[in-house]
Specification:
41% helix, 284 residues, globular, two-stranded antiparallel ribbon, 10 helices, single chain
């Protein structure tokens, strides 16, 4: 299976890719405010690449549970565009993803050098996102969001969790294909975690445990469990920065289930774990 974007082809056979998270936000749930200046942001992105990240995901708006504030387009652009431009200039061949729900931000990010749109709203926030991906040829990651973007009225009810999430993701992907996005340019994400994503701890774990059924939709799958509340709850760790080893448990399960991409904060630790895992698998 290949992932095609901007005229490039990325093989998804043989190993799991690492997407490193860069939060250009002052209020992220796990590392808000740590990389405010462009210089520090660039250093962080390059460090993740050196540590083994295949993709760098740059986001300027918090999606933490309980945050109903909506960032203006200009504010989000000011946070992410200088970082994307600096990273593209410094690392010309790196793969950059823009984590945004806003089509205006996605368009500007692509002009600045982004290769992939990571839409955590799954096309709910902007109906233009798929058209932009089609027109520019970028990759498109579509996350399942059970609620509405930035809503504080969280809906955690499902009659059939796995069936509904798979059905929703299939419809979202088809909507993108109908807009002209190549099937080979789409990655699906079940959207683990609470808030607008709409999954309680047990629901996130059920989706993770049955991720092979999501893969059955015929698209590459990305899992983003890194530092999330349900991970902390399992190990009784309130500080997201102290959930590194717990995160690796979720990554290991995802990799064993055949997931193509894992989205993580702790790139070096994830890379080392995957390196050992994949080396052992060669002897099986």
């Amino acid at each position: 299976m290949n992932f095609i974007f901007k005229g490039r082809t990325l093989s998804l056979n043989g190993r799991t890719l690492i997407m490193g998270i860069h939060n250009a936000t002052p209020d992220s749930f796990s590392d808000g405010g740590m990389y405010q200046s462009v210089e520090y942001a660039l250093d962080h992105c390059i460090e993740m690449i050196d540590d083994g990240a295949d993709i760098i995901d740059i986001g300027g708006e918090s999606t933490k549970p309980g945050d109903s504030s909506v960032l203006t387009i200009d504010e989000e652009l000011q946070r992410v565009i200088p970082v994307i431009e600096a990273l593209r200039k410094q690392k010309q061949d790196c793969i950059i993803s823009i984590d945004t729900m806003k089509d205006e931000v996605a368009s500007a990010a692509i002009l600045a050098g982004a290769d992939i749109i990571n839409d955590v709203s799954g096309l709910k926030y902007s109906s233009k996102m798929a058209e932009i991906a089609s027109r520019t040829g970028v990759g498109l990651i579509l996350m399942h969001m059970h609620g509405e973007p930035k809503s504080t009225m969280y809906n955690y009810h499902y009659d059939n969790l796995l069936g509904e999430v798979c059905d929703d993701l299939d419809k979202i992907a088809q909507k993108a294909v109908d807009a002209g996005v190549r099937k080979e340019s789409i990655i699906l994400d079940p959207g683990l975690g609470g808030g607008s994503f709409g999954k309680k701890k047990e629901q996130s774990l059920q989706l993770l445990a049955n991720v092979k059924k999501i893969k059955g939709l015929g698209y590459p799958v990305m899992i983003g469990a890194s530092r999330k509340g349900f991970i902390g709850d399992i190990v009784k760790e309130e500080d997201p920065l102290r959930r590194v080893f717990a995160n690796l448990g979720a990554v290991a399960w995802a990799v064993a289930s055949g997931v193509e991409v894992v989205r993580v904060h702790d790139v070096k630790e994830t890379f080392q774990m995957l390196k050992v895992y994949e080396t052992i698998r060669q002897y099986s």
